Automatic annotation (TrEMBL), chain A:
UniProt keywords, alphabetically: Cell inner membrane, Cell membrane, Membrane, Transmembrane, Transmembrane helix, Transport
Family: Belongs to the binding-protein-dependent transport system permease family.
Assembly information from the UniProt record: The complex is composed of two ATP-binding proteins (UgpC), two transmembrane proteins (UgpA and UgpE) and a solute-binding protein (UgpB).
CDD domains attached to this UniProt entry: TM_PBP2
Domain ABC transmembrane type-1: 70-259
Database matches in InterPro entries: MetI-like, MetI-like_sf
Name used for this protein in its record: sn-glycerol-3-phosphate transport system permease protein UgpE
UniProt-annotated location(s): Cell inner membrane; Cell membrane
Residue ranges crossing the lipid bilayer per the database entry: 7-29, 67-93, 105-127, 139-159, 180-205, 240-259
Function: Part of the ABC transporter complex UgpBAEC involved in sn-glycerol-3-phosphate (G3P) import. Probably responsible for the translocation of the substrate across the membrane.
Gene name for this UniProt entry: ugpE
TrEMBL record, chain B:
Documented EC number(s): 3.6.3.-
One protein family per Pfam: TOBE_2
SMART domains registered for this protein in UniProt: AAA (SM00382)
GO terms for MF: ATP binding; hydrolase activity
Domain ABC transporter: 4-234
Keyword set includes Transport: yes
Enzyme class, UniProt record, top EC level: hydrolase
Family: Belongs to the ABC transporter superfamily.
Keyword Nucleotide-binding part of the UniProt annotation: yes
PANTHER family per record: MALTODEXTRIN IMPORT ATP-BINDING PROTEIN MSMX, MALTOSE_MALTODEXTRIN IMPORT ATP-BINDING PROTEIN MALK
Stated name of the protein: Multiple sugar transport system ATP-binding protein
CDD domains linked: ABC_MalK_N
UniProtKB/TrEMBL annotation, chain C:
Disordered: annotated segments: 1-29
Domain ABC transmembrane type-1 residue range list: 91-302
UniProt topology in membrane: Multi-pass membrane protein
Official protein name in the record: Raffinose/stachyose/melibiose transport system permease protein
Main location: membrane
PANTHER family, per the entry: ABC TRANSPORTER PERMEASE PROTEIN, INNER MEMBRANE ABC TRANSPORTER PERMEASE PROTEIN YCJO
Pfam families cross-referenced by the UniProt entry: BPD_transp_1
Organism: Limimaricola variabilis
InterPro entries assigned: ABC_transporter_permease (IPR051393), MetI-like (IPR000515), MetI-like_sf (IPR035906)
Homology family: Belongs to the binding-protein-dependent transport system permease family.
Segments traversing the membrane: 34-52, 91-116, 128-146, 186-209, 230-250, 289-307
Keyword set, alphabetical order: Cell membrane, Membrane, Transmembrane, Transmembrane helix, Transport
Intracellular or extracellular location(s): Cell membrane
Length: 274, 328, 313
């Protein structure tokens, strides 16, 4: 039995290596090659290691556009998540604690936000009307709106585990409703907040579709947009394209290493309850 | 100072009326226990007094003030929850001082108040711990401390001892009684445990099905239970109660006799039965008899009584200790 | 003190001190400790940036709308959508893509999850390896596979050539392109399905398997009679999440084929983008409305059906 599990494991590892790891190694090797060598798309060891030079070249391309993109993506991610956490937790709290017919309606909107794809052209029209088209601010609100459904559901499920006695003790201690939430409940939401932050930051950072629609133009590019735009520019410089892919893959890898547990918790939250 | 008056309190959840008109006065400084089986409305009534639940109709007066519609924090009450409801992210010090800090009292005043309460309850060495690092009994004391620091006219306890083990529960009963003597505040205490009610209360309110069955001192309820329900609820082991034909033969609808008011004898008595089982408690023995024409009968006798299962025994009710309800 | 109503509580004659103080009684009804304004911040953001455009789309879908003008034309956009073969193709492709990918993710996800909970060697490492692509930028994955699937120089075909197989033009062959993208989507998403199934499997008490073994069930019977029925909530989640993802998918297609060659791998989401780029805003929005009607029509009955099944159990 022991031996068999060992064998199956080793075999699975070999298959997983070929299927899932080799593509990334391919990217890594090509990112270290010269332009000429990477053009052949060989799966081979670089004859000449140009890893660092390629990295510098990608970062410097188009006036350090990649750095600008990292900055923009970070601002959007941080802004949207800050809004999402506070406003989403409040809704999750209300939904869990107060049982009224209105809840069903609010819950319906939450699910709609999770399921329905956004209506892009009318959204662009609306952003133009309120002067937020092509703006980072607009993008922050958009990402917040799109992530709220997930956030609310996660908070609602977690708040169900916080005994209502705590709210009531605080009420008797003289806390106003907002004090009950901000002083008693919110501090207790730390574990699920970490999950929301981690999962949503990966989602928003990796989002390509929405910046493509709502942030056209060079001044407000995001990381995924630059990656896509570089594709046409680097047609003769595959090594730089691969370097760029590598650079975009690194942040989620780091997050994964440190927050594995929270990611798993967030991504599987629906599995048990359905 | 903090007399509590309830006037025709009613409460419905949807179509279901759970509190069916309660009139009650709890005097200042009284230790009043609401007791009854689960679902009798005792916790709901407590929550209505606290203001956490709003009555459907009826009025509440605390310390001479109509608080029927007042916020919980404005009623001059404090509450100790069954789960203690300590804020997990705050230390003991912060837990006790939470209400005062919400009221934006000066830091020095809060610190002094917390210190005083901690000394009263011997919590001083625990002040910087989080609730997680406390034992059940310590948590219980912190919950009480959080109530005391508010200096309320009325303390409300919602089954506060039910999460403790038997030994600790006995100890806390004594501590609470002493605390009541020391503070002199009005205390309203909800429990389903008649032992807690009997040992701690100045006044017991027996609730059943959303109504008051009887109000009285522990001994009044024990000696003069007004209804068969109270008779069966107060006292341990429970009173022997008979209805139907057996009761009618004795001239009433319900006949009751407490186990401790039966005298057992091997040769004479009112009923003869066979011993089915003997519970040895040490100081006492509880004897379960099967009496033809009557049914099971439980009697209490001394611990060293030499009685064995299968034996035939006579039982005689003591003079003046029989209860007859609905006597014709 | 049997007073008819509580409002007169303070005036009960027997309570001397009470009757005077009670006149200051507060008259207003108390507010809930959970006031509705808690939804306002989220509600405003969600309402303005998601709900309003979604509702507006039902109007814009009925207009001929471009850079310069907007004109109400009724259902013409929808008629055009179902008449134009290349638009229809997008609709068919969307359904095809979503069904293939969710079926594959569900089946593979469950099998891999069973494998990775059976206590084999390097189980934790394997879970991480399978899951990691879920977190990687879709565009990055798309561009990477576009190169790996290059018909003549791509590593996949080179590897096939080494064992004597003449690999196809994965992305250049019109009848294959959509399926190639679907394979990449499965590669990318199976880790999430696996993860959800692992979470679902971990909630099944070992007792069931022990009871089944005592009853003489084979491993195969254990899988079908114990595992499959009891991971049902996870299956619901996996099927619904992958269907929603599959129906909405845009970025992977765009990075790999841009809907090509021709319109052979176009899906609704890429049609919407193309029409938007071409300035046919009304038509693009009509596509959007079709997309969320499609999603609603598929997901809602499915979710309802799954839920009912669960209640029946």
């Amino acid at each position: 039995m022991k031996r068999r599990q060992y064998l199956i494991g080793a075999l699975s590892l070999a298959v997983a290596f070929v299927v899932f790891v080799i593509p990334f190694i391919f990217v890594f090797l090509n990112a270290a090659k010269t332009a000429a060598e990477s053009a052949t798309l060989d799966f081979s060891w670089p004859r000449e290691w140009r890893f660092w030079q390629n990295l510098v070249e990608v970062v410097q391309a188009r006036d350090y556009m990649l750095l600008l993109a990292y900055f923009n993506s970070t601002v959007i991610t941080v802004g949207a998540i800050a809004l999402m956490v506070v406003s989403g937790a409040m809704v999750g709290y209300l939904l869990q604690r107060r049982r009224t017919p209105w809840n069903r309606i609010i819950y319906g909107f939450v699910l709609a936000g999770l399921i329905i794809p956004p209506a892009v052209v009318p959204t662009i029209w609306l952003l133009q009307q309120i002067g937020l088209f092509k703006s980072i601010t607009g993008m922050i609100f958009i990402q917040c709106a799109y992530g709220l459904g997930f956030t609310v559901l996660l908070y609602r499920a977690f708040i169900a585990t916080i005994p209502r006695d705590l709210d009531e003790a605080a009420i008797i201690d003289g806390a106003k409703p907002w004090q009950v939430f901000f002083k008693v409940i919110l501090p207790l939401l730390k574990p699920v907040t970490v999950t929301v932050i981690v999962v949503q930051s990966i989602t928003i950072f990796n989002d390509f579709t929405h910046p493509l629609y709502y942030l056209p133009g060079a001044e407000n590019v995001t990381v995924q947009l630059t990656l896509y735009n570089f594709q046409s520019q680097f047609v003769s410089q595959m090594n730089l394209l691969f370097m760029n892919i590598l650079l975009v893959t690194v942040p989620p890898l780091i997050v994964f290493v440190f927050f594995n547990r929270q990611i798993v918790a967030g991504m599987t939250s629906g599995a048990v309850k359905g | 100072m903090a007399r509590v008056v309830l006037n025709d309190i009613r409460k419905s959840f949807g179509a279901v009326e759970v509190i069916k008109g309660i009139d009650l006065t709890i005097e200042d400084g009284e230790f009043c226990v609401f007791v009854g089986p689960s679902g009798c409305g005792k916790s709901t009534l407590l929550r209505i007094i606290s203001g956490l639940e709003e009555q459907t109709s009826g009025g509440i007066e605390i310390g001479g003030r109509d608080v029927s519609l007042a916020e919980p924090a404005e009623r001059g009450i404090a509450m100790v929850f069954q789960s203690y409801a300590l804020y997990p992210h705050l230390t003991v010090r912060e837990n006790i001082g939470f209400g005062l800090s919400l009221a934006r009292r000066p830091k020095a005043e809060i610190a002094a108040a917390v210190k005083k309460v901690a000394e009263t309850l011997q919590l001083t060495p625990l002040l910087d711990r989080k609730p997680k690092a406390l034992s059940g009994g310590q948590r219980q004391r912190v919950a009480i401390g959080r109530a005391i620091v508010r200096d309320p006219g009325v303390f409300l306890f919602d089954e506060p001892l039910s999460n403790l083990d038997a030994a600790l529960r006995a100890q806390m009963r004594i501590e609470l009684t002493e605390l009541h003597a020391k503070l002199g505040a009005t205390m309203i205490y909800v429990t389903h445990d008649q032992v807690e009610a009997m040992t701690m209360a100045d006044k017991i309110v027996v609730l059943n099905g959303g109504r008051i069955e009887q109000v009285g001192t522990p001994m009044e309820l024990y000696e003069h239970p007004a209804t068969p329900f109270v008779a069966g609820f107060i006292g341990s082991p429970t009173m022997n109660l008979y209805e139907g034909k057996v009761a009618r033969q004795m001239g009433c609808d319900t006949y009751g006799i407490r186990p401790e008011h039966l005298t057992l004898s091997s040769d004479e008595g009112r009923w003869q039965g066979r011993v089915r089982h003997v519970e040895r408690l040490g100081a006492d023995s509880i004897v379960h008899l099967d009496v033809p024409d009557l049914g099971p009968l439980v009697a209490r006798t001394t611990g060293d009584a030499r009685i064995a299962p299968g034996e035939a025994l006579w039982a005689r009710p003591q003079e003046g200790r029989e209860f007859r309800y609905g006597a014709v | 003190m049997n007073l008819p109503t509580g409002r007169q509580a303070g005036s009960a004659p027997s309570h001397g001190r009470g009757s005077t103080a009670a006149t200051q009684a507060p008259a207003k009804r108390r507010g809930s400790p959970y006031p509705y304004w808690f939804v306002l911040p989220a509600g405003a953001i969600f309402g303005i940036f998601f709900l309003a455009p979604t509702l507006a789309s039902f109007y814009f879908a009925l207009t001929a709308w471009d850079l310069f003008s907007i004109r109400f034309i009724g259902f013409d956009n929808f008629v055009q959508f179902f008449r134009e073969p290349f638009l229809m193709q997008g609709l068919v492709n969307t359904l095809l893509f979503a069904s293939i990918t969710s079926a594959a993710k569900t089946v593979l996800g469950l099998l891999i999850a069973v494998l990775l909970t059976s206590g084999i060697f390097a189980q934790g490492l394997l879970r991480s390896i399978v899951f990691f692509p879920v977190l990687v930028s879709t565009i990055g994955i798309g561009l990477m596979f576009a190169e790996l699937m290059h018909p003549t120089e791509g590593a996949i075909n080179l590897a096939l050539a080494a064992i004597g197989i003449d690999g196809p033009g994965w992305l250049t062959n019109p009848s294959l392109a959509l399926f190639s993208v679907a394979m990449v989507d499965i590669w990318r998403g199976v880790g999430l399905a696996t993860l959800i199934y692992i979470a679902g499997l971990s909630t099944i008490a070992q007792d069931y398997y022990e009871a089944a073994r005592i009853d003489g069930a084979t491993r195969w019977q254990q899988f079908w009679r114990v595992t499959v029925p009891l991971v049902r909530p996870a299956t619901t989640t996996v099927v619904i999440l992958s269907l929603i993802g599959g129906l909405r998918l845009f970025d992977l297609i765009w990075a790999m084929t841009r809907g090509g060659p021709g319109f052979s791998s176009d899906v609704l989401a890429s049609v919407i983008y193309k029409q938007y780029q071409a300035g046919f805003y009304g038509l693009s929005t009509a596509g959007n409305v079709i997309l969320f009607l499609l999603i609603g029509l598929i997901i809602l009955p499915l979710a309802w059906w799954f839920n009912r099944k669960e209640v029946e159990q």
